[in-house]
Every structure is written in C-alpha cells, then in structure tokens.
C-alpha cells in the first residue's frame, strides 16, 4: 500500500468548510459558509442548487485547486493543502466550460492529453481508442472538434477526463446547455461509468438530473446545505406524494386562493402560491382537483404530477430552483 493512502477513506470528507473571496473593491463574498459533507466510494453524489449557491466553489476545493478558507477537508483521506498533486492524480475533472483543443481532431484531443500524463505514444493511442468507444465517438475520431454537436463535445470532455483512469470524476454542471436527447445519452455514459466503479461527484441545478444520476445529494443554497439524502427520501421527507398545479387567468389567482384553501382543507393539503401558479401538495392530486371543482373554483389549466426535488427546494428555501 502507498504510504499515507487509506483505501477505506471516504472520497470527500468536509467539516465546517468555508470559502470566501475578496473582490477588487475589498468586499468579502462568502461563497461557502460552513458545510459538512461525506461522499462514499462508488456512489454518485450531487450538489443541487441554483446559480450562486456555492457549488462551483465547493467543487474547486474538492478538486484540490482552490484552498479552503476554514474548516477541515479531506479528499481520498488526504489533505489538499499538503497533498494536492497526489489527490489531483487520482481525480478526473470535467469543468463547466468545454476546454477542448479546437486545433486538434477528436482522437488527438485524447492522445495529446494522455501524453501529458506520461503515457507512451502507443499506450496513449490505445487509451484514446478505448475512450472513443466508451463515449460513442469512434466514428468521429478524425473529425474536428468544431464539427461536433454540444452533446458530443461534452462526451469527449468526459472521455478526456478519464485518461488517467481516475477513481473519482468531478463534473460541474455536466449537461447545462444540452438538448434533452443529448442529456439522456450523457446520463447513460455517466451511469456506465458509475457501474464500472468510478465515484461521481457532480453539481447541477437540474432537479431531474439529480434524481436520475445521484444516489445521494445535498441541496445547497446561499453557501449552506439545506438538506441531505437520497432523492426519493428527500422528496418523502419534505413533500407530499403528488402536487396539483392550478393556473389561473391573468390577475385572477389572488382572488381564487382563499377558495382553493377552503376546498382542500379536509385533504391534509398544503397550498403554495407562486407568481404564475398555485401548487397544492397532497397525496392524491386528483382528489384536490375534484374538491376545487366541487367548490366552484375554476382554474384556467390544471396538472397533477409526482412531487420532485424542485418541490423539496421550494419547501426548504421558499424559492424555485430555476428563476
Ligand atoms: N473568484 C471569485 N471572486 C469573487 N466572488 C466569487 C468568486 N467565485 C465565486 N464567487 C461568488 O461566490 C458565490 C458562489 O459562486 P459559485 O460559482 O460557487 O456558485 P454556483 O452554485 O456554482 O453557481 P453557478 O452555477 O452560477 O456557478 C457567488 O456569489 C459568486 O459570485
């Protein structure tokens, strides 16, 4: 065993971790205000929160590229303040922006990157071909990067971050800007990676991504952790099973709300008014619609859906994830 490496250590262990920045005009921004997190081996762990929640700042600390301002952080059992290079050698990092080399073709992006890690030319080529196959990009090997779709570029970026066979892959907003189909292809790639034993640590502001990919996650807001758990457990703890959404004609919602409240009073329901719709939390959404109708309240449109992490976020913070 390599000295100082504990194979059983958690991938990430954070206690009271803080990150603050001083801006050019001297103001102090507290991006992360004291978080406790433990990421276990082999899991997919997410940081879910809106823009500015402190997710990227956290990921940069976890990636051992940005020092903690306070608190204790261990990555793979090592202290990033003293063991940064050893930690980084065992991580793959997929940043928010694509940093591919547009001058090179797809395959050479992987080969050259593998050469940085000290692989021989022959081994680098072999590794590149294996990763092209994994990313479903074999038929694009000779294409220029600029010829790739957004989804293909992301898959190539992920492939590139795997060149050093990392134990842990850090992904900052992996599917931002991709269309739904490209997102599903990417989720599949990440799922296969997890199946192969790689620990995934990702940030996202998409609740469906967090639900699809993460075994466990923390809900982050304003530099703090608002809740932690498996997606379904968080939903069960913080929401009813279903949500009835009621949309009213412009300007009608305020007048209609007391009627809605009265109609659902017997259903163990909770009403949440957003600017554009009223949400009624109850275990039986259809029963809510029936009660509202029986009470003579007439929304312009209705919808019953399963509760999601978006509802958890709203419950915990009073705001929606995506403004
Ligand atoms: N280098 C920096 N200097 C000053 N302030 C910063 C710096 N980096 C981040 N911040 C601030 O810290 C807060 C958290 O930013 P961070 O990027 O970590 O959030 P985020 O949840 O990742 O959001 P996004 O998805 O928009 O990146 C924000 O208010 C941001 O403006």
TrEMBL record:
Which keywords are on file for this protein? Antibiotic resistance, ATP-binding, Nucleotide-binding, Transport
| Record localization | Cell membrane
Stated membrane topology is: Peripheral membrane protein
* Domain of life from the UniProt record: Bacteria
Question: One MF term from GO for this chain?
Answer: ATP binding
Output the InterPro entries linked to this UniProt entry: AAA+_ATPase, ABC_transporter-like_ATP-bd, ABC_transporter-like_CS, ABC_transporter_ATP-binding, P-loop_NTPase
What the entry lists under PANTHER family is as follows: ABC TRANSPORTER ATP-BINDING PROTEIN, ABC TRANSPORTER ATP-BINDING PROTEIN NATA
Q: What is the name attached to this protein's record?
A: ATP-binding cassette domain-containing protein
Keyword Transcription among record annotations: no
Location (main, coarse): membrane
- Which Pfam families does this one have? ABC_tran (PF00005)
- Say which family it is in: Belongs to the ABC transporter superfamily.
Domain named ABC transporter is located at: 12-247
